[in-house]
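Structure first, sequence second, as always.
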């Protein structure tokens, strides 16, 4: 059985706890053991890199160091955590003077990092390591007849991740096909849901989520499938307000 260090991130322990409660049994069923990282800290998400890059890279360096000491690669289900850790890993591997200084500071704090850790997203492991044919064998109840809009969000396909085609990713679509669902041609699959903007500037957040829901409905989707906990949160909590504001019944399961 392959083993990984599971980095839950803050969302999996709070507003996206149901995401964690779903994903952990799936990994167990397909034969991958996840060991939750001990004494993990917040990665700061992408916002931290805009505020103070030095501190942001340092806190991510600590996370990478913990995984390296355990001798395991990381699995990060949260899109923001995945992107931030991937970006930080590439930064440390750049060997710039700034990177060397932060690595030296981390070492002095007992968090030495040599760059041996790979950061993975669950979807990548499902499609690449396990393989879709093996996934098919594990399906107990196919989602036959269910039309789904596969929504990746804007973070897992950004630069630094080499996750999939940045303009039109297909990994999630292929996974949905493997379990019997029918992915629709969803042109909004990499549009932004607004992230934390929904809490700060509600009008803008509602508009962005309205576009996502409208396109899913237009394509005849029965549900939206997403791999980002914040996208999941936004698409769920905004629906009632969107129906009221735009006078349309775009309610759809996420």
């Amino acid at each position: 059985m392959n083993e990984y260090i599971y980095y839950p991130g803050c969302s999996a322990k709070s507003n996206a706890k149901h995401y964690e409660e779903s994903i952990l049994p799936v990994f167990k069923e397909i034969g991958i053991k996840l060991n939750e990282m001990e004494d993990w800290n917040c990665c700061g998400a992408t916002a931290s890199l805009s505020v103070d890059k030095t501190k942001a890279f340092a806190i991510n360096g600590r996370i990478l160091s913990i995984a390296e000491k355990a001798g395991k690669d990381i699995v990060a289900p949260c899109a923001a955590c995945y992107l931030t850790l991937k970006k930080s890993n590439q930064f440390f591997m750049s060997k710039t003077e700034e990177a060397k200084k932060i690595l030296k500071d981390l070492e002095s704090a007992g968090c030495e990092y040599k760059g041996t850790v790979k950061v993975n997203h669950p979807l990548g492991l499902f499609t690449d390591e396990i393989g879709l044919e093996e996934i098919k064998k594990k399906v107990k109840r196919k989602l036959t007849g269910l039309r789904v809009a596969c929504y990746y969000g804007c973070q897992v396909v950004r630069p630094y991740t080499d996750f999939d085609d940045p303009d039109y990713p297909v990994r999630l679509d292929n996974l949905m096909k493997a379990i019997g669902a029918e992915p629709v041609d969803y042109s909004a699959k990499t549009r932004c849901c607004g992230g934390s903007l929904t809490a700060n500037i509600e009008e803008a957040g509602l508009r962005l989520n309205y576009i996502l829901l409208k396109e899913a409905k237009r394509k005849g989707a029965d549900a939206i499938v997403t791999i980002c906990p914040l996208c999941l949160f936004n698409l769920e909590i905004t629906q009632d307000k969107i129906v009221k504001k735009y006078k349309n019944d775009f309610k759809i399961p996420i």
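Margin note: Residues 2-120 form a domain with the Glutathione S-transferase Yfyf (Class Pi); Chain A, domain 2 fold (CATH 1.20.1050.140).
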